[in-house]
Amino acid sequence: MEKHTKIKTILVAVDFTEKTDSATTLAAHMARRHNARVILFHNLMNFYIIDRTGRQLVGEDTVSKHYKEAENTLELMREHLQKMYSDITFHKIIGNDHIVNSINKIIDSESVDIVITGTAGKQGLREFILGSSSYQILTGIKCSVLMMPEDSYQYKFEKILVPIRVLEKLDEKLEISKLIAEKNNGFIGLLGISGDEHFRDIRKAFIKIRESLKGDEQEHYASFVVSNDKAVEISKASKDAEFDLIILNYQDEEGWKSFFSENFFKQIINNTSVPLLFFKDGEAINPGPEPTGYDITLPFPG
């Protein structure tokens, strides 16, 4: 996203479940406001057997059948959306790699600015250990990610919460926050939040951004909180003032504290019910241990 001042291409991850519906509708509304195009993306996983003759695709006929079914369903979705939003251009793409690899390839080839993915809310133990598809997308792809709760119908962002909690790329984050506020005729709620560490630096950055918003005559209000439970405070602030969107830097707090403890990302996802935009600037992370399907290695005879 050049200088983070434009959103021209939006990719929405589609899995044909209910949690996709709100994400797809949000993509259409955002595309209309930003004069952007929408890519409807669905990913299929393949399954392989590895023997002494090499890697072979399991059930090629079945895979081909599933691919055609997915392509037909995605095309029906595209046609339906095109009729509803005739002023927006919709494309469809099906991937067959690890979902993160597939999306990153499209980000590069199609100059995607933002990825929207639906989330079902609180995650169970399996998703916590292995990572849900939405969480893999958040942690693995190269551009900003907007996570849309499946039970949210908030398609316009008139009240935008912008926490200042880390120092990385604040200017770029401010630019995209101002862009979204402008396109939605909204205002920015600036929330400075710091624990015991880096208090002076974060406070200084908060004041600088507050003054910048004043200079731009951007409608906003600002407050500052001292707390080590940043995810809890951000969630509370969003609920108390009924914000429509939270814009966060892609920066974790304290990493993984323990195997069963939640990091900042999972805390904020599990404790908020509004869309979350994680600002990211080419920061791709390892997509995790889940493979592109499953390899079944057969032993050599004798």
Automatic annotation (TrEMBL):
Q: Which domain of life is it from?
A: Bacteria
Q: Which InterPro entries match?
A: Universal_stress_UspA (IPR006015), UspA (IPR006016)
Q: Which SUPFAM superfamilies does the UniProt entry name for this protein?
A: Adenine nucleotide alpha hydrolases-like
| UniProt xrefs under CDD domains | USP-like (cd00293)
What region holds the UspA domain? Answer: 7-148
Q: Name one Pfam family in it.
A: Usp
| Similarity comment | Belongs to the universal stress protein A family.
Q: What protein am I looking at?
A: Nucleotide-binding universal stress protein, UspA family
